[in-house]
Amino acid sequence: MTGLTFRSATVVDADVLVEIYNHYVRTSSVTFDLDPWSTDDMAHKIEAVAELGMPFLVAELAGELVGYAYLSMWREKRAYQTTMENTLYVRNDVRGKGYGRLLLDAVVQDGVEVGVREVVAVIANTPDAVPSIRLHEKAGFVSVGAMDRVGRKFDEWIGVVMMQKSLSRD
Ligand SMILES: CC(C)(COP(=O)(O)OP(=O)(O)OC[C@H]1O[C@@H](n2cnc3c(N)ncnc32)[C@H](O)[C@@H]1OP(=O)(O)O)[C@@H](O)C(=O)NCCC(=O)NCCS
Question: Of 132, 142, 145, 166, which residue is most buried, by most CB within 10 angstroms?
Fold first, then answer.
């Protein structure tokens, strides 16, 4: 029992979620964003995911938001519409307690319910993203490729690994 509960994000959550996210923007290469998001940026993301009909979940513990996960378009062209990219962030001070795995499983399950068939994770190929790569492996994602030197952050070239989980049964 973790005491963790999930619910759909609303724009009111944006100011807390942006704090969780901006910690990683400022300190790590797990995200390719170079500039911190504003609260409005996060609110627009919450609205865009809702308009797409995809899940955007927040995880709450004793009334505090400790993480979030959502599914969004992997590629824009319409034939990709049953394939989504997943994003998840756990607040830095509560990592390693099992919340990331619960969040990832929950958002994938919600994706199944709205017809998602493939989930793609595009993960930085850097030491600080090792927890994410291990988490996705444990959650049933398989590595399907890698691209080198596609990003530059903190004066280093960064590659990505692509991981995929198939949700379809046929
Ligand atoms: C990746 C992240 C979401 C994992 O969340 P978490 O709550 O810390 O992870 P959990 O405690 O649920 O761990 C689940 C699994 O992830 C892996 N993992 C977690 N932390 C790890 C670490 N420091 N080193 C190696 N593997 C790790 C393990 O396989 C673990 O399973 P186990 O405990 O049974 O061995 C979290 O570290 C995070 O927010 N990181 C920064 C943002 C990020 O990388 N997001 C993903 C972008 S695609």
Answer: 132
**What residue ranges line ligand 1, CB within 6 angstroms?**
24, 30, 88-90, 95-101, 121, 123, 129-132, 134-135, 138
Strand order from edge to edge, sheet including 56-61: 5-8, 56-61, 64-73, 83-90, 118-124, 156-166, 142-153
- Report, as an integer, the average pLDDT of 62-91: 97
Residue 91's pLDDT band (boundaries 50, 70, 90)?
A: very high
Entry pTM? 0.97
Mean of pLDDT over the chain: 97
Q: Where are the domains of the chain?
A: 5-166
Please give the CATH superfamily to which domain 5-166 belongs.
Gcn5-related N-acetyltransferase (GNAT) (3.40.630.30)
Ligand 1 pocket mutation pick from 135, 160, 161 by most atoms within 8 angstroms of CB: 135
Q: Has residue 1 got a pLDDT over 90?
A: no
pLDDT at 6: 97
Residue nearest to atom 25 of ligand 1 (CA): 131
**Number of the ligand 1 atom closest to the C-alpha atom of 91:** 39
Distance 150 CA to ligand 1 centre (A): 23
Residue 37 Cα to ligand 1 midpoint, Å, equals 23
